[in-house]
C-alpha cells in the first residue's frame, strides 16, 4: 500500500513538472495570441513534417520511445494516437502508436506484478473477481475482447490483469490486437487534420470540416466501434 501511494505521488509530481516546464518554455518563446493562430499551427506542423521526412528513423524512434514512456507513466492512448496520425499518417501512425502503447502497457503490467499487486487485490479484486473464470478458460481471447471493449480508464485497464496472473506474452499480443481498431480510427482522424492544415491557407469553417471525408469517416467508424464495444461489453460482462 505504501509503495502504491509513493508511486502515485511520483506520477503526479512527474506530470506537474513536465506541464510546468512545457508551459514555461512555450510562453517564453511565444505569446498566447500567436500560439492560438492557425498560421502558427500550420507553419510549425510544416516544419515538423519536413524534419520527419529528412530524419524519418530518428523521428520514429523518438516518438516510439515517448509513447512507451508515456503509457508506463500512466498516460492514455488518444492524444498520442491523434499525434501519430498527424505526423506519420494513418497506417504507419497506427503501427508505431499501437506498438508503443502495447510495449509501454506491458512494462507497466510487469511493474504492477512486482510493486502494485497487493494494492490492486485490496482495492479491485472483489469488484472484478467475476472475470477470473473467463481469464482462465481462454486467456488470450478474453484479453483481446477485454482490450477491445475497454470501459475502464486506460491506466486501470493496463493494470487490472495483474489480478489474474496473465502471461506476459498473452498480455502483449492481446493489447496490440485489441487496441488496434480504435487507434487506427483516431490516427485516421489525425491524418485527416494534417491534410486539412497543409492544404488550406485559412481555417475551414466547422460546417466545412464535418463534411470532409477525412473527418466524418473516422468519426463514423469510431461511433460504429463504440456501439460494437458496448454490445460486447453488455454480453461478456453480464455473462
Write the layout of secondary structure elements.
Elements (H helix, E strand, L loop, with lengths): L1 H28 L2 H4 L2 H17 L1 H17 L4 H12 L1 H26 L1 H12 L3 H6 L1 H11 L4 H6 L8 H32 L6 H5 L2 H26 L1
Helix pairs in contact: 3-4, 4-6, 5-6, 5-11, 6-11, 9-11, 9-13, 11-13
Task: Explain what the structure shows.
The chain is mostly helical and 239 residues long. The protein has one domain (37-238). Helix content is 85%, strand content 0%. It is built from 13 helices and no strands. It has helices at residues 2-29, 32-35, 38-54, 56-72, 77-88, 90-115, 117-128, 132-137, 139-149, 154-159, 168-199, 206-210, 213-238. It is globular and about 55 Å long. The mean pLDDT is 81.
Key terms for this structure?
85% helix; single chain; 239 residues; mainly alpha; 0% strand
Short description:
With 239 residues, the chain is an all-alpha fold.
Amino acid at each position: 500500500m505504501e509503495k502504491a501511494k509513493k508511486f502515485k505521488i511520483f506520477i503526479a509530481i512527474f506530470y506537474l513538472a513536465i506541464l510546468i516546464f512545457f508551459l514555461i518554455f512555450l510562453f517564453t518563446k511565444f505569446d498566447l495570441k500567436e500560439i492560438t493562430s492557425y498560421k502558427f499551427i500550420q507553419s510549425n506542423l510544416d516544419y515538423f513534417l519536413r524534419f520527419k521526412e529528412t530524419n524519418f528513423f530518428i523521428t520514429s524512434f523518438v516518438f516510439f520511445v515517448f509513447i512507451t514512456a508515456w503509457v508506463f507513466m500512466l498516460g492514455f492512448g488518444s492524444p498520442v494516437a491523434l499525434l501519430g496520425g498527424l505526423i506519420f499518417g494513418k497506417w504507419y501512425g497506427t503501427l508505431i502508436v499501437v506498438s508503443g502503447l502495447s510495449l509501454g502497457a506491458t512494462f507497466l503490467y510487469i511493474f504492477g506484478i512486482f510493486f502494485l499487486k497487493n494494492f490492486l487485490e485490496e482495492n479491485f479484486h472483489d469488484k472484478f473477481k467475476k472475470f477470473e473464470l473467463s481469464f482462465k478458460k481462454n486467456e488470450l481471447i478474453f484479453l483481446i475482447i477485454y482490450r477491445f471493449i475497454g470501459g475502464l480508464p486506460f491506466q486501470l485497464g493496463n493494470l487490472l490483469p495483474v489480478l489474474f496472473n496473465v502471461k506476459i506474452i498473452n498480455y502483449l499480443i492481446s493489447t496490440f490486437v485489441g487496441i488496434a481498431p480504435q487507434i487506427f480510427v483516431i490516427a485516421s482522424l489525425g491524418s485527416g487534420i494534417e491534410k486539412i492544415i497543409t492544404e488550406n491557407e485559412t481555417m475551414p469553417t466547422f460546417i466545412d470540416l464535418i463534411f470532409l471525408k477525412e473527418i466524418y469517416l473516422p468519426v463514423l467508424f469510431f461511433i460504429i466501434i463504440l456501439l460494437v464495444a458496448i454490445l460486447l461489453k453488455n454480453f461478456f460482462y453480464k455473462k
